[in-house]
Amino acid sequence: MYYEKDADLGVLKGKTIAIIGYGSQGHAQAQNLRDSGLNVVIGLRPGKSWDTAKNDGFEVLSVEDAARRADVINILLPDETQPKVYSQSIEPNLKSGAAIMFSHGFNINFGQIRPTADKDIFMIAPKSPGHMVRRTYVEGFGVPALIAVEQNATGQAYEIGLAYAKGIGSTRAGVIETTFREETETDLFGEQAVLCGGTSALVKAGFETLIEAGYQPEVAYFECLHELKLIVDMMYEGGLASMRHSISNTAEYGDYVTGPRIITAETKAEMKRVLEDIQTGKFSRNFLLDQSNGAFMHATRRKEAEHPIEQVGGSLRELMHWIKK
Ligand code: NDP
Ligand code: MG
Ligand code: MG
């Protein structure tokens, strides 16, 4: 773990940091770095983010001009957009010895971006969405982050990376060392098997089982989707044991006897195959292929939006005044 004492902001003083993209991560990291006294310019195309960054008081440039100015450049565009923008607008304009940064390892790990040997390549990956990166910094804290160095051309990659992590507030919480490979593969696995894919499929299957048995969709929605947040919040704050301490004994007993009937040895064997598809690059190849026209993604998005859980959820959430519309 690296902390405040391991990082020296002075390494970045007098240097220009170009933040490419001003979305979830871009806006948060740029504002934190500026409040830490560092020089930040934003690289964008004309559009919504451009106007937001200007209104927030930043110097906003084309991606080409931002790349020309950069001593350190952090590419915070959507992962599938990065390779094209890198080859067309960033690479031809970068200074020799510039440091190229990411907040996710996808494009380096899967060889979609291959910077020349004279550049430092490293990642500072905050373990949080952008609005938390900003909010915790303003409150005087920070979110934990990962650091990984892929190419240390100048011999200074760690010093620059840790200074950047300090600039966004992450050394206040702690910075853990990893590799591009570990960060990318575990991130993809987690979101597919557990966080997004696994959870959505579990929620839908539970909901369908109840309505197919004749129960009211509204009641099924509460039991299988709505209450998930309460359980996840308890797991987040105190782990599994603390969640099990808070629920009823009936729920705890049901957890132990039924959990292994739902997530079986066969499920875990399938998880291993999912991980293999990530490690061999099969998943990323399929993803990038589909992104070229988005056929599967768009069709599935439409189909999923028509699921009854979405219809009933839409009406029920209207009744929940505390949920932002
Ligand atoms: P967002 O989708 O929130 O923002 C993307 C930004 O890129 C927008 O400002 C968009 O501007 C701009 N952009 C898109 N296409 C172009 C283009 N062709 N030229 C110039 N600008 C463009 O991205 P995220 O912040 O979610 O993700 C950025 C990186 O951070 C990714 O590598 C992601 O994996 C990583 N990450 C994200 C986390 C998160 O919580 N979101 C967490 C940790 C890492 P416009 O308004 O013009 O479309
Ligand atoms: Mg991810
Ligand atoms: Mg209940």
From TrEMBL:
<keyword id="KW-0560">Oxidoreductase</keyword>
<keyword id="KW-0479">Metal-binding</keyword>
<protein>
    <recommendedName>
        <fullName>Ketol-acid reductoisomerase (NADP(+))</fullName>
        <ecNumber>1.1.1.86</ecNumber>
    </recommendedName>
</protein>
<keyword id="KW-0100">Branched-chain amino acid biosynthesis</keyword>
<dbReference type="Pfam" id="PF01450">
    <property type="entry name" value="KARI_C"/>
</dbReference>
<keyword id="KW-0028">Amino-acid biosynthesis</keyword>
<feature type="domain" description="KARI N-terminal Rossmann">
    <location>
        <begin position="1"/>
        <end position="178"/>
    </location>
</feature>
<keyword id="KW-0460">Magnesium</keyword>
<dbReference type="InterPro" id="IPR036291">
    <property type="entry name" value="NAD(P)-bd_dom_sf"/>
</dbReference>
<comment type="similarity">
    <text>Belongs to the ketol-acid reductoisomerase family.</text>
</comment>
<feature type="binding site">
    <location>
        <position position="45"/>
    </location>
    <ligand>
        <name>NADP(+)</name>
    </ligand>
</feature>
<feature type="domain" description="KARI C-terminal knotted">
    <location>
        <begin position="179"/>
        <end position="323"/>
    </location>
</feature>
<feature type="binding site">
    <location>
        <begin position="22"/>
        <end position="25"/>
    </location>
    <ligand>
        <name>NADP(+)</name>
    </ligand>
</feature>
<dbReference type="GO" id="GO:0004455">
    <property type="term" value="F:ketol-acid reductoisomerase activity"/>
</dbReference>
<dbReference type="InterPro" id="IPR014359">
    <property type="entry name" value="KARI_prok"/>
</dbReference>
<comment type="pathway">
    <text>Amino-acid biosynthesis; L-isoleucine biosynthesis; L-isoleucine from 2-oxobutanoate: step 2/4.</text>
</comment>
<feature type="binding site">
    <location>
        <position position="248"/>
    </location>
    <ligand>
        <name>substrate</name>
    </ligand>
</feature>
<dbReference type="InterPro" id="IPR000506">
    <property type="entry name" value="KARI_C"/>
</dbReference>
<feature type="binding site">
    <location>
        <position position="227"/>
    </location>
    <ligand>
        <name>Mg(2+) 2</name>
    </ligand>
</feature>
<feature type="binding site">
    <location>
        <position position="191"/>
    </location>
    <ligand>
        <name>Mg(2+) 1</name>
    </ligand>
</feature>
<feature type="binding site">
    <location>
        <position position="187"/>
    </location>
    <ligand>
        <name>Mg(2+) 1</name>
    </ligand>
</feature>
<dbReference type="Pfam" id="PF07991">
    <property type="entry name" value="KARI_N"/>
</dbReference>
<dbReference type="InterPro" id="IPR013116">
    <property type="entry name" value="KARI_N"/>
</dbReference>
<feature type="binding site">
    <location>
        <position position="130"/>
    </location>
    <ligand>
        <name>NADP(+)</name>
    </ligand>
</feature>
<comment type="function">
    <text>Involved in the biosynthesis of branched-chain amino acids (BCAA). Catalyzes an alkyl-migration followed by a ketol-acid reduction of (S)-2-acetolactate (S2AL) to yield (R)-2,3-dihydroxy-isovalerate. In the isomerase reaction, S2AL is rearranged via a Mg-dependent methyl migration to produce 3-hydroxy-3-methyl-2-ketobutyrate (HMKB). In the reductase reaction, this 2-ketoacid undergoes a metal-dependent reduction by NADPH to yield (R)-2,3-dihydroxy-isovalerate.</text>
</comment>
<keyword id="KW-0521">NADP</keyword>
<dbReference type="InterPro" id="IPR008927">
    <property type="entry name" value="6-PGluconate_DH-like_C_sf"/>
</dbReference>
<feature type="binding site">
    <location>
        <position position="49"/>
    </location>
    <ligand>
        <name>NADP(+)</name>
    </ligand>
</feature>
<dbReference type="InterPro" id="IPR013023">
    <property type="entry name" value="KARI"/>
</dbReference>
<feature type="binding site">
    <location>
        <position position="187"/>
    </location>
    <ligand>
        <name>Mg(2+) 2</name>
    </ligand>
</feature>
<comment type="pathway">
    <text>Amino-acid biosynthesis; L-valine biosynthesis; L-valine from pyruvate: step 2/4.</text>
</comment>
<feature type="active site">
    <location>
        <position position="104"/>
    </location>
</feature>
<feature type="binding site">
    <location>
        <position position="223"/>
    </location>
    <ligand>
        <name>Mg(2+) 2</name>
    </ligand>
</feature>
